[in-house]
Structure to design on (531 residues):
């Protein structure tokens, strides 16, 4: 059976408007709670970090959907997004050509692209370069993207790579110990998020999540590992398996025919048997002639008691089934014999696997149409000619409906709203005087790390944040797009892993800002430029 027939059977069985688990469903967007902070973190890093940003996850983890959300949530007036696909064009020339085409340029070389980025920066526009399937990039193309991310003369594009996790090892080798990129690893869905994902998929196709039992949802989550692409395949497999099991039970009970077809065949067999019996009796019955003509009585007229049928005594009366099948219309013409029960249409079996019938080309074979039983002409008994009284005409009196009574509309009085009084929050009082300036950061070992908490244009805001949270928080001044920016950091750590582990010890409101580790070497360079 072809895949097209299988898809049609799947949609028809569950009455889907479309395949809910297709890879690309127009208009489908699902962002669980864990993915929304990732989107906010990408915007934050694009604004305050000069590193190349990498989003990693296995195939089908939702990287492309996150990339689409990043483009859709940017301000189109101030950000020009250029999407690059590394599939089939992973060399340096292929990447630069796509970047130049996205920027509307003819020259596809590094200096021309950086010059165009600088020109857009003068008009207040930033450039986002978003690379899909970045694991297919050659090392030379990755080095070119590192160069673009650094930029020239404070004009640089923000480079985002969406790739599978094995790209990180290659980037570590190319960075050669320097801090040149920041990685964000996507996490799989929990079982509750898997249920929400399935509910939104099924609802878009005209069904609900109640189509799946709790056990089936648990099976789908376990088989997929919580990754969206694998959830689609596992859910489709579960529903197809349930459909085949249901149709297999019908085959075992009806020998390959649905119940409707069996019922129709049984009704036809009964009708044919009754007709055969009537035909046999008719052939053995002698024909009786009479000199008087036969007068047919309309259905709506009541024959008088004086009407007597002249019939040979040896002619037996027709059976009850034959009498029920002989009717006469008002025009004295016999009606055709009706087929007992409604004829059912022949339904094509959606899946050839369910019925076991398949032709050589793989197409499902239709059942032969059911033929009506041949009608036999009944023997009409002869009756005497007697005038039939005409029924009295019936007078039809029209019935008029009374006009609906008018319902009074209640009058609602307007109530003046009371003014809402809001209390002003108490001002934040600084606990300790912060350690400020590039001197403290310059005295730290360049190989140590700190956690960057936030960046702000107001020095008073940076002071207030440091004073509120304690002496382990400090800030320094840097230049961003020609204007001062005050960056708040936390602590000092011997390595990147120690700084990463310290994030979990921070207060919840600080963790909500998605702090990230950065080396004192990069901080010292920015602080020196701001002098």
């Amino acid at each position: 059976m072809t895949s097209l027939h299988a898809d049609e059977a799947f949609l028809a069985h569950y009455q889907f408007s479309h395949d809910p688990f297709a890879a690309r469903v127009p208009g489908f967007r699902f962002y669980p709670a864990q993915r929304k902070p990732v989107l906010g973190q990408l915007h934050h890093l694009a604004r305050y970090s000069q590193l190349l940003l990498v989003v990693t996850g296995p195939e089908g983890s939702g990287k492309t959907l996150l990339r689409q959300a990043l483009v859709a949530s940017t301000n189109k007036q101030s950000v020009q997004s250029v999407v690059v696909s590394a599939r089939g064009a992973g060399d340096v020339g292929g990447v630069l050509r796509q970047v130049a085409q996205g920027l509307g340029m003819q020259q596809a070389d590094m200096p021309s692209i950086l010059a165009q980025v600088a020109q857009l920066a003068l008009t207040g526009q930033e450039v986002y370069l978003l690379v899909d399937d970045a694991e297919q990039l050659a090392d030379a193309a990755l080095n070119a993207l590192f160069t673009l991310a650094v930029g020239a003369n404070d004009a640089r594009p923000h480079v985002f790579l969406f790739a599978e996790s094995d790209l990180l090892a290659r980037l570590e080798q190319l960075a050669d110990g320097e801090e040149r990129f920041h990685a964000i690893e996507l996490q799989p869905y929990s079982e509750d998020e898997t249920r929400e994902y399935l509910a939104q998929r099924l609802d878009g196709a005209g069904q609900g999540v109640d189509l799946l039992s709790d056990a089936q949802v648990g099976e789908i989550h376990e088989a997929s590992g919580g990754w969206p692409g694998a959830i689609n395949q596992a859910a489709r497999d579960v529903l197809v398996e349930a459909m085949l099991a249901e149709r297999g039970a019908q085959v075992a009970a009806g020998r390959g025919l649905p119940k409707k077809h069996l019922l129709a065949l049984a009704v036809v067999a009964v009708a044919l048997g009754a007709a055969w019996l009537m035909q046999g009796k008719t052939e053995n019955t002698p024909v009786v002639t009479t000199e008087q003509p036969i007068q047919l009585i309309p259905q709506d007229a009541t024959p008088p008691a004086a009407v007597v049928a002249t019939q040979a005594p040896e002619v037996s009366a027709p059976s009850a089934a034959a009498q029920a099948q002989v009717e006469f219309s008002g025009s004295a013409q016999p009606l055709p014999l009706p087929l007992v029960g409604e004829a059912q249409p022949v339904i094509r079996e959606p899946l050839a696997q369910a019925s076991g019938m398949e032709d050589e080309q793989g197409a499902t074979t239709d059942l032969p149409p059911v033929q009506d039983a041949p009608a036999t002409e009944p023997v009409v008994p002869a009756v005497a000619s007697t005038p039939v009284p005409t029924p009295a005409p019936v007078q039809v009196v029209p019935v008029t409906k009374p006009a609906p009574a008018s319902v009074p509309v209640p009058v609602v009085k307007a109530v003046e709203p009371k003014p809402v009084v809001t209390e002003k929050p108490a001002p934040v009082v600084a606990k300790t005087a912060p350690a400020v300036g590039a001197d403290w950061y310059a005295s730290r070992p360049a190989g140590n790390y700190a956690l960057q908490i936030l960046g702000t244009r107001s020095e008073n805001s940076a002071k207030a944040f440091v004073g509120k949270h304690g002496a382990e928080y400090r800030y320094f001044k840097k230049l961003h797009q020609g204007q001062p920016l005050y960056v708040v950091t936390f602590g000092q750590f011997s390595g990147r892993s120690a700084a990463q582990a310290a994030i979990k010890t921070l207060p919840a409101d600080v963790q909500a800002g998605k702090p990230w580790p950065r080396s004192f070497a990069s901080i010292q360079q920015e602080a020196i430029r701001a002098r």
